[in-house]
Amino acid sequence: MAGAQSAWGIDIGTMSLKAIKLRKDGDRVQVEAFDVIDHDQPLSDPTINRDEIIRRSLTRFLDRHTTRRDAVFVSVPGSMAFSRFVKLPPVEPKKVPEIVRFEAIQQIPFPLDQVNWDFYKFQAPDSPDVEVGIFAMKKDLVEEVLANFTAVGMSVQGVQLSPLAVYNAAAYDDMSNGKGAVIVDMGADHTDLVVVERGMIWMRSINIGGSHFTDALSKSFKRPFDKAEELKKNALQSKYQKQIFQAMRPVFADLVADIQRSIGHYSSSHRDSRLDVVVGMGNPFRLPNLQKYLQQELKMDVVRLDQFKRVNADSKTAAALNDNILSLPAAYGLAIQGLGLAEIDTNLLPVEIARKMMWKSKQPWFIAATALIVLGVASLGAKYYSASGAFDKMEKSDTAVSNDAALGKFSAAKQKYNALGDSVKASQETAENFVKLAEYRALWPMLTMDILDSLPQAHAAAGAGPSSQPAPLNIVLTRIDPVFSANLSGVSLTGGPATPAPANANTNTNNANNNAQTGAVADSNRGFIVTINGYTTAPEGWKVIKSQFEDVLMDKAKHVAANSKPYYFLPEEVYSPGQVIPRPTPGANPTGMGATGVTTPWGGTGAHGSYWEFFVPDLAGVHPTTAPAAAAPGGLGAVMNAAQARDLPGPVDAFLSTRDSASTPLLYDAYTFTFVFKVHVK
Which of 247, 259, 453, 562 is 20 to 30 A distant from 546 in Cα terms? Predict the structure, then answer.
């Protein structure tokens, strides 16, 4: 992506604020300024107001430097964010974003509308395998970070994970010298471990940092934290050097064990990996013997960062920069990204916040432009009024009449265009529904199986008729219709098939209540309203369906943390028994059946009768085109003509209307039902 000519990278750590300003200088960069500002108190202290401490440090930074004309990129700890690395199947490049979005839905443990997320595609030069890194952070956490910059009047153009900023610095400066490397960036509270190999990356955060060494000394020597910190920094000059290192030895061992586990995990998923060197950075690497200890235990070369290779700086700045080099890699990588030179250009800055900050930074220009416009309008005002008097005295010319006619035509065309707007909007909503159905197509086979498996199916004994035993509870589904909604909580299911509510409706009461009842972690407000139409053969059959369907379906995909499916259900179903199609009686004309009741045992007032039109397509898979033949003592003649009977794909016993002219037809009453429920997509 295109970058600015100059950029600040600001890395706010537990103990201090680190910042560096770079400017493009050919194929290198020029260090314009840098600063390291210690916080008034460590941010790890639970008794302090973190935001207040950070804002004080930012204020001191602004007292020394200006960022008005520069891009500003800031870091967030890797431990506050979510990262996953996924190998993709061979696909066309244009389909990668679609697949990544599907993976993001599966991998990120929050709904996508609650996080800022981005991805980057990795591919080794000599390998066809494609791997993507998915990086996400909850929106409220990003807003908390940015609130401190907004409070001191700073505009931010980018938010990057600290380990990715370190990777960008290492890649730009080739800190691994082209070898497979493990970058170990130690902070005060945690250590970022970044594996760099042949254009690929893998990272992990380890909960061991410099403060853990200080805590070990504080407990061993029974000193306050600040005194133990001084003891750690001056260990080489202390007469208790041996005791100091002995007290810190357990922390050294834990750190090595975590690094070994991380390297082992990476190697198990990348069989052909070859890691040759460990690059150490961060102020804890000032500890004597840490570099030597890691090299002995890891059986790898361990080098400590001592310079930035591709920067220019004057002699005074270069000397000060080298003194602070261990604490600056993240800030360096952020500034590299601000210049548009970073390998990984993911950005977790919310779009809406980016727009606000951009507007704020350009407000002075708009104010100046507004002043110029006001002056221009004032100068034109006098000319307008002088010309207006002359125009009023003119009679309407032929040209004016022609213009009026043209304006009339334009107005009529505009009205037609506006009338088309509603039609276009409806088409857009229909298209969006199809798009969402396609986007979530992977879950439909699973969902359909859950629906079908949840329906009760009882079958009567073979040959039993309605006169010998109650009607069997057979269930036939005639339609399953899904409609996508971005705001399920705003949809009411009362009264039958529902329609989606506006996406910006603010009605989350139902979801909140259900969330409290089911013990779920978080609600998803998007998904589908599914309408199922069908019929059953028992008068109270729909109640049985309601009871068992709800119990079984809800058990298959409850809204609980243990549910591994990509969707869940809430008990918001609405059932209705629907229309009743009565059983016909030979020799009588039931109400509503018309004159065809005797000769057409299928009943109904249509050309073929309700049974004929409603059941034959379901049972036989065909749509007869002519009316049944007249009633006869048994046989197919009472249902359809011989030509139609030959076309049936399966057994035809279901269509026998009578056993003899006086018996009850072999048809049961049918009770239709409509069942509406919501499917929440995670």
Answer: 562
